[in-house]
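Record type: monomer structure entry
Structure origin: computed from sequence
Chain ID: A
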Amino acid sequence: MQTRTYGSLFSLTSNMIGAVTLEATSEQPQLAALIDRRFFEAYKKSPIWPRYMVSGEPRTLGPDQVVPFTEDSFYIHASGAPETHGLYTYGPEYDGTNSYILNGDSITFDVTEYTAIPDYEGTYKLDATYDGISNNYDRGVWVNQTNPNKVLAYNHQQDRWELVDLVLGSQVTGSTSLKPFPWMTNNGISGMVFGNAPEALYQIDRNAGNNHWELLKIEPDGTETVLYKDGNGSIPSETVWEIVNGKNPAPIVHDVDDIADFIRVHKTESFLNKSAHEYDYYVDPIGAHLLNVTDSDLNVAYVTYKKKFTPFGVTTDYYNDDTEVPEEFFNYIAHAAYADFLRIQGQTELAQTEGALAEKYLDMELEKLNNINSLNAVRRISTHVSRQSRNV
């Protein structure tokens, strides 16, 4: 997918208009607005522009069977360590920075015994967004699913996990521990016994001391092994990961995009060598509501979608801006924006001619889509049998 620059696009359109440089205070902003308008029109012409379409990506399936439009997660795949692949969801704060955990929304553990206060016994699940106890605590708590005011939270001032009653805002007791998860305290909280703790976890976080991102394997006892590491960017890069203790090749770490349009939703990985159950759904401002989901433990759905549109938004130095312009839209935008400019100037006939030429350029690009495999991602054979509700 090739690109050209915004400066080249602006210069070409200006030359069509007949000006080497348009008047700065009025004509240049006017043309920039027309370019953004035509850019959006090209984007809307097809749901399967390869630049904007994402196929079969895991996304969080939240409460009420809803896949949200946006989420703070990373999709890791294509490494030599398949056990690390999947959706890394927003996790608790760790070493002073955000962390992301593989299948974090499905991780649970049990407190099987705590005779001092039996209300703390039960199954715990992560609420990674909670940050309301006090400044002494890291963001994120593990919530008792039976008594949701009872949580396990990490006090970074004391370097220990503590039992906290959210209603009272008071700490009950704790255990000195530098372990990243509460069950790794080795039953260090007096009288508390953990059970059904997860096996090895996989997590990405920023190592503040070494100023890079790490993909870690964390054993049940808290032992950490760095599998891959990234550079010093503020967010993990997509492909520039180094192999430390992992297997070749290094992973692709994709910061998941905002969803503009849902195309298809599957229960498992789709468009591979095996079939995957497809969900019916409806969309509202919250997201895609899946229908007939009978698996209550399902936390991930595989979504084929169109990425959200972002306008060029250039406001200064139009002729030298190096913002990327999709090559497949370049000629359409130039001729269509020129046609709009002509129409504003009252040159209606010439505007119609240029508008028709612009559509031909876009039609040529759309015709290419008819000959590539991405069309398979939006096809769905509809019959009486295939459209019946299925319990899977």
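Annotation 1: The CA atoms of residues 175 and 189 lie 5 Å apart.
Annotation 2: The first helix runs from residue 6 to 17.
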